[in-house]
């Protein structure tokens, strides 16, 4: 008589990332690009945020309040992004929030990157916030005939690849996930997830708006 074991699979400590299209991107794009380049023209240094300038090359970064500009299109972009963040946070936390919980998402930091040929941003994560995101306002020539410009996300399981044999093949063997930007896409991810912008070799500017957010429940 064959003894058949019942084996239950339990997946724990997953890392959710969410990809969507920015609402009204076609309407907002040119106005937002104009706002970005207007602010870029006022910059007195390439990295206005003054955060980790040595980790960034051949790019311009604003201060961390870009989405606070008193501009109708910028304000609409912030509103739309906060709605996306809240929808995601509510979905992920549905089983953990008390019944009838009301919540709001607040973007507390936001900035643009205008990346030129050869530009990149080393691996990093974003402390003191809940969810982070990147809005690809203008991906430029990213990933066209080897032009790079992808965002790379790193496996947060720091010991996952301390040993490799056929039994660990499911881990992927490289510990990274590369995201190819397309026009108007938004990727939203938990703040602990390390990521980088790989070297970009396109001739057209690669322009993104990045943001950090917190969730308030009541």
Fold and architecture overview:
With 218 residues, the protein is α+β, with helices and mostly antiparallel strands. It has a single domain, classed as Jelly Rolls (Sandwich), CATH 2.60.120.620. Helix content is 18%, strand content 33%. The protein has helices spanning 25-42, 72-92, and strands at residues 18-21, 56-61, 103-124, 131-138, 151-154, 176-179, 185-190, 195-200, 206-217. Strands 1, 2, 3, 4, 5, 6, 7, 8 and 9 form a 9-stranded antiparallel β-sheet that branches. Helix 1 (25-42) crosses helix 2 (72-92). The N and C termini lie far apart (58 Å). The mean pLDDT is 94. Keywords: Coiled coil. This is 2OG-Fe(II) oxygenase. Residues 67-94 form a coiled coil.
Helices and strands in order, then pairings?
Layout: E1 18-21, H1 25-42, E2 56-61, H2 72-92, E3 103-124, E4 131-138, E5 151-154, E6 176-179, E7 185-190, E8 195-200, E9 206-217
Antiparallel strand pairs: 1-7, 2-3, 3-8, 3-9, 4-7, 4-9, 5-6, 5-8
Fill in the keyword field for this structure:
218 residues; alpha+beta; Jelly Rolls; 9-stranded antiparallel β-sheet; 2 helices; 18% helix; globular
Summarize the structure.
Pfam families: 2OG-FeII_Oxy_5. The protein is α+β, with helices and mostly antiparallel strands.
Question: How does the helix and strand content classify structurally?
Answer: alpha+beta
Topology-level CATH name = Jelly Rolls
Range of strand content: 25-35%
Q: How many separate domains make up the residues?
A: 1
How would a crystallographer describe the biggest sheet? 9 strands, antiparallel
CATH architecture name: Sandwich
The helix content, as a percent range, equals 10-25%
How many strand units?
Answer: 9
Q: Radius of gyration in whole Å, from Cα?
A: 20 Å
Are there runs of 5+ residues with pLDDT below 50, and where? Answer: none
CATH class: Mainly Beta
- Tell the overall outline: globular
Number of helices: 2
Task: Round the mean pLDDT to the nearest integer and report it.
Answer: 94
Give the N-terminus to C-terminus distance in angstroms.
Answer: 58 Å
What's the CATH H-level homologous superfamily? q2cbj1_9rhob like domain
The run of helices and strands is EHEHEEEEEEE
